[in-house]
Amino acid sequence: MTIWVTNYIIKWSLRLCCRRFPWKRSSISVLASIKDSSLSRNGFTNGFWGGRLYQSRLSGTLSTTRFYSYGEKDNDDLKDSNSLTTDNSLSTDELNKTSSEQRQRTSPFLELLRGCNSPSDVLDLTSKYAPTNRQVSQCLSHMWFSTKKLSDEQQRYELQLMFEHPEFENLLQRVTRSIQYMHNKDVAYSLLSVINLGVAQRSRVIQTLLRTCQERLNDFDEKALSILASALERMKASQNVDALKEGMRLVVEGRLPEIQNVLALQTMMRLLGRDAPRELKQKLERKALSMTDQFSLPNAQHMVFTMATVGFHSKPLLKFCSDKIKDNLHHIPFNILYKILQSYKELLYRDTNLLTSISDHVASTFDIWTNKQLVFFLCAFKDRLFCPTSLMERYAEKVIANPDALTLKDLLSVLTVYSSLNYDLQHQRQAFLDSLSHALISYLPTMSGLELLKAAHYLCGMNHFPSALLEQLLSSTASFTKSKERMFQRVDICLRLDRPPLPQPLIVPPSVLGNPTPNPSVNPLLSKSLQSVVADQANATLQEMLVVENFYVIDGVVTKPLPNQPCVTETSSMSPAESSQRIAVIYTPNSSFCFGTSHPRGPLALQIRHLKILGYAPVLVTEQLLQSSSEEEMTDKMRGLIFPEHASEAQPQ
């Protein structure tokens, strides 16, 4: 025990002496020692770490990269850089001794490091106490973590102070001297930290870290690979970065069966990215599915985000994650839940059960959400073409109770959602629309022309016509561009066909309507089926691709006698129009309906409403009907839609 105490005292006495004689630590600068080396030929004469913060991000003048990851031609340079020593650098034996004697849990340095609240505090600490090899990496990580919770402006200020600090360059020099003695995980953490801190990517310190990572890549464990993948994800494409990414792809593919950590697997998936070969993506899918029993709720959420990031669509994996999320909705905060909906949008994935569960959950916990959050939820559901019935009903009650609480942006978003999804408010419809109109009127003096047009467009679509808003819109039509013609055309046809009771007649100026006549294209499958159906009916006629009111396109109009009506003769008092029925056959893609239902969305609902006003009986032929039936089956189904009386007569047979 006495010998140990003596050695301990001697060791700390030597360290104290070194610190008390600063002239020992500044004899020869590393920059000076490499001044005449190949760095000048490779564009690194501007500084060890690439200049200050803003300079580091504008350092495109550097002509080449220090170390190339292909081949061995720069091995000597790298060895030279790793072997650079100064009077203030530790010898190999001293470094090894320091590392072996390090006691992380009781280290006074780490206790002091935890008390640092900014990068500058960390640099002040390293100027007083020399960190060990591992502590160098921990210093860099702490510098980055200390800025994460700051606002953008505070973060910029702290990073600027960091780059101006005289100790910052010394710390980065120590990174390159200590890198060969660092653990693999510490090397990866060091790279991640300096990237996050904004050090120039083409600086010597980052290029040295990249080259070291490549040399040790085969020895990296899951944790180190995961950290390295996060670092490379934040780096711009370059010869070094691309080569290291390619090496990681090979390592990941070879080690895939050995990966046991879900988070590590997700990090590897992000690294492999959208350009990964299909065979490798399938291997990743099988690996992820084999690990689903380990998935926690955060794992399931993160898997959805990862798949959206890399554009990887796996229905079995998404289904599992959706079920996991659905069973734990009460534990998911707004930002995560909203991000999940956005990720499903990017992946073009819709799960009716999950969407319904989220809608019901938000509706049942309605009071805990802010108005802004509720509007975001509604817009996210609208983007998925899903009608959240329970949520829309609750929100309508909120609008009716206090419409003045909505901002103009909220009002326009709400109008967009309710108009697009064609939600049936039933007995609350008029009160809801009146409340929205009342709130909009208060914003009329400050509304732009485009905001007026959007509001009128959505309200007219819902068969509601506030006169004050329409009058202000139609009195300021000169400022609109050609791209808004379609919206004006819809307002115009609503005014003409719905004929709302306004204080004075309103007409949309022809100058903003452009040329509303559409240019329809024939659906060959539907056309052939219609012709086959009408050919069997003696008293029926067919018109294809009929344009109505210069706005709506009808794929086929079948005119047939009304059932149980006598034939029209020269002596009869009934006109042919009164004795016949016009069937408007409309092809409707799946996107024309709310997801998972046969409920028409806004544009289709408006067309149906107007065709009925014009005397047509709309018949909808869905995309599913055309694609999932044989020609004979489709003709039979079409006959049943257009001539239901014949279908009912044939049924008993």
Automatic annotation (TrEMBL):
UniProt-listed Pfam families: FAST_1
Record InterPro entries: FAST_kinase, FAST_Leu-rich, RAP
Key words, A-Z: Mitochondrion
GO cellular component: mitochondrial matrix; ribonucleoprotein granule
Gene Ontology biological-process entries: mitochondrial RNA processing; regulation of mitochondrial mRNA stability
Domain RAP: 585-638
Domain of life: Eukaryota
Compositional bias of kind Low complexity: 81-93
Biased composition (Basic and acidic residues): 94-104
Protein location: Mitochondrion
Molecular function terms from GO: RNA binding
UniProt-annotated stretches for the region Disordered: 79-106
Keyword Mitochondrion: yes
PANTHER family given in the database record: FAST KINASE DOMAIN-CONTAINING PROTEIN 2, MITOCHONDRIAL (PTHR21228:SF1), FAST LEU-RICH DOMAIN-CONTAINING (PTHR21228)
The protein, known as: RAP domain-containing protein
